Amino acid sequence: MANNAPARIWVMRAAFPALALVIMFFHLLPLDTLPSRWAPPDLLLALVMAWSMRRPDYVPTVLIALTFLLADLLFQRPPGLMALLVVLACSFLKSQVQPHRETAFIGEWVTVAMTITAVTLLNRLILAVLGVVQPSLGLILIQMVATLLIYPLVALASQSLLGVRKLSPAEAEALGSR
Fold first, then answer.
1. Where is the signal peptide (predicted)?
2. What are the tens digits of pLDDT across the range 144-154?
3. Domain 2-27+37-177, what fold?
């Protein structure tokens, strides 16, 4: 029941943007000046998906939107597009929390994989329709696959290090009554 305490929820709501800022900081560090032949996984996307599936009360929609809008601006992506797609994806995942509460991790991973694939393809399609210059399709697919492969590690780290576990039925009922 301690995971439902309002103080714990607010601490985790503050921890998410702090973790996001750390991820953005390390993503922006110029560790290598040569162009890379592969794209690293999108840890920020994997983190928000893991938290949305496991504890939707820790990542409210406004927090997701503001975090990804900042990421759009810092990563020099079209402002708001990725933020919108991630907000829609996380809203979908939050609506899927009830059916996946009792399922194994594989079911969660498949749902997240389909969602990440949809976000990637929709982003690519919208940018193509608008005529925005994009990286090669190979790099985008490498990043998508790397993000899908890193998701179990992000979920494990979130659960073991930060205590972001799936809601039990009793915790969900207590949250629903608030």
1. none
2. 999 999 999 99
3. Arp2/3 complex 21 kDa subunit ARPC3 (1.10.1760)
